[in-house]
Amino acid sequence: MRLNKYLMLILVLLLAVSCEYQSATDTEAENEIGTEKPDIKITIGTICGWCVGSDTLFITEKKMSYVHAAVCEGTEYRTSKPTPDSVWNKIIDLYNQDDFAKIDINTCRVCADGCDTWIKVENGTFTHKIRFGSIRDSEALKTIEDFIDLLANEKDKFEVQ
């Protein structure tokens, strides 16, 4: 019985550290965008439990910045490149702010050692974030499925092998 209490305490601490590390990583990567004042900033990331870590792709019209953090190893990979016009145009064509704003989902699969994908859009005074484990988590996600797929594919191009 005593072992279960210690195991639970360790799991809670690991979860707290991974969530805090993701928040710090997000802020650091946002700073990489620098003095650019984009009209629209789109962020997609994945966070997983059990030391898998997290990755984040920040996208503006001019720049894409990627950060992969291996929490337990204490390592981080960062890179950035200019946003190709063709990619930005596809993103903007697929983005519908009204549809995105209607989605209210915030799963926590990472809480049970799974993975969550999250997308945050900032556009002037508008800011909205969704978090989900799978496109099947909500019927509402299907309204922006092509947008989600495009962002995920762009993020996958940066992944550390």
Alpha carbon gap, first and last residue: 41 Å
State which percent range the strand residues make up.
Answer: 25-35%
- Can you tell me the CATH topology? Mago nashi protein
Mind telling me which CATH architecture this is? 2-Layer Sandwich
- The radius of gyration over CA amounts to 17 Å
Structural class: alpha+beta
How would you spell out the order of helices and strands? HEEEEHHEEH
Total domain units = 1
The CATH class is: Alpha Beta
Extract low-pLDDT stretches. 11-21, 31-37
Average per-residue pLDDT, rounded, comes to 81
Estimated helix fraction: 25-40%
Biggest sheet strand line-up: 4-3-2-1-5-6
Largest sheet: 6 strands, antiparallel
Q: What is the subunit organization of this protein? A: single chain
* Number of separate strands: 6
**Mass-distribution shape:** globular
Number of helices: 4
Description:
It is a single chain. The protein is globular, with a radius of gyration of 17 Å. The chain has a single domain, classed as Mago nashi protein (2-Layer Sandwich). It is built from 4 helices and 6 strands; from the N terminus they run αββββααββα. Strand 3 (63-70) and strand 4 (75-82) form a beta hairpin. By secondary structure, it is an alpha+beta fold. The chain has helices at 2-32, 85-94, 97-102, 145-156; strands spanning 40-48, 53-59, 63-70, 75-82, 115-123, 126-132. It has a 6-stranded antiparallel beta sheet, with helices on both faces. Mean pLDDT is 81; it is low at 11-21 and 31-37. The longest helix has 31 residues, at 2-32.
